[in-house]
Write a structure and sequence with these properties.
Elements (H helix, E strand, L loop, with lengths): L1 H11 L3 H13 L4 H17 L3 H8 L18 E5 L3 E5 L4 E4 L1 H17 L3 E4 L3 H6 L5 H12 L6 E3 L5 H12 L6 E7 L3 H10 L3 E7 L18 H23 L1
Parallel strand pairs: 1-4, 1-6, 4-5, 6-7
Antiparallel strand pairs: 2-3
């Protein structure tokens, strides 16, 4: 089911999704020329929208409306939960594999909050290929390694079975609730926070959102969301589209 979900997402999300519309439109030109032109131009329009700052900002704004956490609010929490975002399989400079840049951004901020608050840390995230082939440490284990070796922050719990956000929440709750942990500081990307909070609250945990790595918003980093279309804006647009599809899929399947 996970692989099917990933295939469907790849087909409808940028960059492949708009290209598929263009290809479909071109195929229709011989039979239904008017519809074919509309479909093809729609694909071009969607593709341009996904790399244009104004439209990407419109997608991001409601996703990233949860503000950065105030240090004082950490006092009411029982633990910090950091969600994984993938790994880098080929990292010979680290002796094999390591966390990717998405996970590293979350780990870095989680480490900062852990030092500020003294709260225990749970890392959450599995890796389908690693579970299937037992080829080495999964994402959560790599997160623990980075936190302890590079940031000198101990990790108390490692949840390494989850394959999506819903499982992040469910499996983390299974570890934490029996130990009396009911309120967590949740660390993930700002654009991923709404979906994550919904999943963790549904799993029975109270959540203090601690978003990181904002793509947009006031005072945005122009290197991430520049004024002209570019590769960084395309990355932000693809991330935002992925989140909107994820939110829809989560609510329809709940």
């Amino acid at each position: 089911m996970l692989y099917l979900k990933n295939i469907v997402a790849a087909l409808i999300l940028p960059p492949l999704g708009p290209l598929m519309l263009v290809a479909l439109g071109l195929l229709l030109l011989g039979w239904l020329p008017r519809i074919g032109r509309v479909v093809a131009w729609s694909g071009i329009a969607v593709g341009l929208a996904m790399i244009t700052p104004a439209s990407v900002g419109t997608l991001l704004e409601p996703l990233e409306d949860i503000p950065a956490v105030e240090p004082a609010s950490l006092a009411g929490a029982d633990a910090i939960v950091i969600l994984s975002g993938g790994l880098r399989d080929y990292a010979p400079e680290y002796g094999g594999s390591t966390v990717n840049r998405i996970t590293l951004e979350r780990v870095r901020y989680g480490a900062r909050l852990a030092r500020q608050s003294g709260l225990p840390v749970l890392v959450s995230g599995g890796t389908p290929s690693r579970q299937a082939n037992a080829r080495g440490p999964g994402e959560a284990q790599l997160m623990k390694q980075v936190l302890e070796e590079d940031f000198r922050v101990p990790v108390k719990w490692v949840e390494g079975r989850s394959l999506d956000t819903r499982q992040n929440a469910d499996f983390s709750a299974q570890l934490l609730l029996p130990q009396g942990v009911k309120r967590v500081v949740l660390v993930t990307h700002a654009a991923h926070m709404h979906r994550s909070v919904e999943a963790f609250e549904h799993a029975g945990l109270a959540v203090i959102p601690a978003p990181t790595a904002f793509f947009g918003g006031p005072g945005k980093d122009d290197n991430l969301l520049p004024k002209l279309p570019g590769i960084n804006t395309a990355y932000a647009g693809g991330y935002a589209a992925h989140e909107w599809v994820g939110i829809l899929a989560y609510r329809l399947s709940r």
